[in-house]
Amino acid sequence: MQHTTPHHRRRRRVPRPLFVVGALLAAGIVALPPLAPDASAATTLRGHADARGVRIGAAVADGPLRSEAAYTTVLDREFNSVTAENAMKWDALEPNRGSYNWGAADRLVDHATSHNQGVRGHTLVWYAQLPSWLKNGNFTAAQLNTILQNHISTTVGRYKGRIYAWDVVNEAFNEDGSMRSSVWQDKLGTAHIASALRWAHTADPAAKLYINDYNIEADNAKSDALYALARQLLAQGVPLHGVGFQSHFVLGGVPASMKANLKRFSDLGLEVSLTELDIRIPLPASGAELAQQSTDYKTASENCLGVPRCAGVTAWGLTDKHSWVPGTFSGYGAALPYNEGYGAKPAYTGLSNGLNPNA
Ligand code: G3I
Fold first, then answer.
1. Is residue 129 in contact with ligand 1, taking CB distance under 6 Å?
2. Helix 69-78 / helix 45-52 crossing angle, nearest 10 deg
3. For the purposes of burial, counting CB atoms within 10 Å of the CB of 310, is it exposed (0-12), middle (13-18) or buried (19 or more)?
4. Is the CB of 278 under 6 A from ligand 1?
5. pLDDT of the chain, 359 residues: tens digit per residue
6. Are 344 and 337 within 8 A, CB to CB?
7. pTM of the entire predicted model
8. Using a 6 Å cutoff on CB, does residue 276 contact ligand 1?
9. Which PROSITE patterns match (predicted)?
10. Is 85 near ligand 1, meaning CB less than 6 Å away?
C-alpha cells in the first residue's frame, strides 16, 4: 500500500543530483566505475587504476613468480596487468628451431588469468635476445620473412584472447632517428614492421598492437622518426594501435616535453602506454633522492594519464631485489616502487598519487 502523507512523499523523493545521475546512468550516458572487491582495494595501485579504467602493470620474472610468496602477494594485490620480463622473448620461446618452450610464458598467463590481471605480450620483433640458430643462420630474406611470420602466428595465436596488447616491434630505431641495424631491418627493410603488425592482427584481431621503444619519451629525433613512421603506417591502413614509451629514467630525468610528446601520438588516434617504467638512482640512495624519485614516479604517470588514450603504466619489475638496473648500470639501482625487502618506498606513494585523481 502506498503512503500518501506529505511526510512520506517527502522522504521518498529522490534528491535532485542523485536523480540526474540515475537518469544519465539509465540512458547509458555515464557509467559507474567497477566496484572495488573490498574497501582496502581502493587504496592499492590496482584499486586506483581500476577506478580509472586503466592498467597498472609490472614486468614479472619467472624465478620469483615460482618461488617467492612476498613477490606474488605484492604483484596480485597491487597490479592489474603483467608483462613477461623475458619469458616471451624469442630465445626463451624457441631456443632450438622448431622446438618451443612455453613453460614460463604459460605460467605467467595462467597466473594472470587466475588473479584477474591482463597480460601485455613482450615482444615479437626485436634485434636482441634472438636464439643463436636465428642470429647466426645466415638466412635469405625470403626465409626470414617466413620465419618471422611463423613465429608471430604461432606465438600470438597461442595466446589469442588472453593478451590485451602486444609489443609487436621493440627498439627499431637508433637515437638519431635512423632505423637500427638488425637481422630484420638489414634483410627485409622497414617493410618488416608493417608485415609483423598485419600478421599479429590476423592471429589475434582483438589485441592492441604496439611499437615500443626507449628514449622516445621526449620530443627528440628518435620520437620524431617514430611519429613519422606511425603516421605513415596508419595512412596505409596497417593495424598499429599504440605506442609504448618504455620510460627507463634516471633520477630527475623525466623529460619536460613528455606529456606534449605523448599527446601528439594520442592525437593520431593511438593508445599510449608507459611500458617499462623505472627510475634509477646512484647508490646508495639518500632520503632526498628517494623523495625525488617519488616525485618522478608521480610526474611520469601523470604525464601518461593526463593524455587522452593513455591505456596505463607498467613498471619494469616491482621490487629492487629483482631489477635489471644494477646489472646494466654499474653503481645505480633502487629503481622500483618496492625495496629489496618488499617494503613500499616513497616511489610507491608517488605512483599511487599519480594514479589517483583525488590525491
Ligand atoms: O636465461 C639465461 C640463463 O639461462 C643464464 O644462466 C643466465 C646467465 O647470465 O642468463 C639468463 O639470461 C638472462 C635473461 O635476462 C634472463 O634472466 C640474460 O643473461 C640477461 O641479459 C637478460 O636480461 C634481460 C634484458 O632485457 C636482455 O636484453 C633483463 O632481464 C630484462 O629486464 C631486459 O628487459 C629489456 C626489455 O625487454 C626491453 N627494453 C629494455 C629492458 C631492459 O634492458
1. yes
2. 30
3. buried
4. no
5. 333 333 333 333 434 444 444 444 444 344 444 444 444 667 999 999 999 999 999 999 999 999 999 999 999 999 999 999 999 999 999 999 999 999 999 999 999 999 999 999 999 999 999 999 999 999 999 999 999 999 999 999 999 999 999 999 999 999 999 999 999 999 999 999 999 999 999 999 999 999 999 999 999 999 999 999 999 999 999 999 999 999 999 999 999 999 999 999 999 999 999 999 999 999 999 999 999 999 999 999 999 999 999 999 999 999 999 999 999 999 999 999 999 999 999 999 999 999 998 88
6. yes
7. 0.90
8. yes
9. GH10_2
10. yes
**Active-site hit among 78, 85, 171, 271:** 171
Domains of the chain with CATH codes: 18-355 (3.20.20.80)
Which numbered atom of ligand 1 lies nearest the CA of 89?
Answer: 37
| 276 catalytic residue (yes or no) | yes
How far apart CA 237 and CA 316 sit, in angstroms, is: 31
Q: How far is CA 148 from CA 89, 98, 165, 169, 231, in A?
A: 13, 13, 19, 12, 24
Active site residue 171: yes
154: enclosing H helix or E strand: helix 141-158
Expressed in angstroms and rounded, the spacing between residue 86 Cα and the centre of ligand 1 is 6
Angle between helices 287-305 and 346-355 (to 10 degrees): 20
